[in-house]
Design goal:
With 140 residues, the protein is mainly alpha-helical. Helix 1 packs antiparallel against helix 2. It contains 5 helices and no strands.
């Protein structure tokens, strides 16, 4: 079960990152071209939001069934600290920001403002996520 979830978490990450990038690019293009915020734009942002939440839930489950989860709070081992403390904590912040962006865009009146909220909050979230991916184990 642990190995399956670990592989699923790694594989789902690709989809999540692609959807986040598509949502961000779509929002920047929509904002700069002053186009109308349509149902298609809403769905793109929503799918990215759902993917990040799903990824986080899988990660939380994996964290608690992992042999390194709670036992990995050894602050002297940087690789272990990354996967057991920094990765989940920073990703929680990133997903909170993405969720805030989703919520704030719904309250905006103009199309440009809707695109900007998604672009800004999703971009910050993506940067945080990319900063804490354990690249050495993910690409191996």
């Amino acid at each position: 079960m642990y190995e399956f979830l670990q592989k699923f978490h790694s594989g789902w990450a690709y989809l999540t990152l692609i959807l986040l990038v598509v949502a961000i690019v779509n929002s920047f293009l929509g904002s700069s071209s002053n186009k109308e915020f349509t149902a298609k734009d809403r769905k793109i942002a929503l799918f990215a939001l759902i993917a990040t939440h799903t990824q986080f839930l899988i990660g939380i489950i994996l964290y608690f069934i992992s042999p390194l989860g709670m036992a990995g709070f050894n602050m002297k081992d940087s690789a272990l600290r990354l996967t057991s403390l920094e990765h989940p904590f920073i990703n929680l912040i990133a997903i909170a920001l993405i969720t805030i962006g989703w919520s704030k865009h719904k309250k905006m009146e103009t199309n440009v403002d809707k695109f900007k909220k998604i672009a800004i909050f999703y971009s910050i979230g993506l940067v945080l996520i990319l900063s804490r991916i354990p690249w050495s184990s993910w690409l191996a």
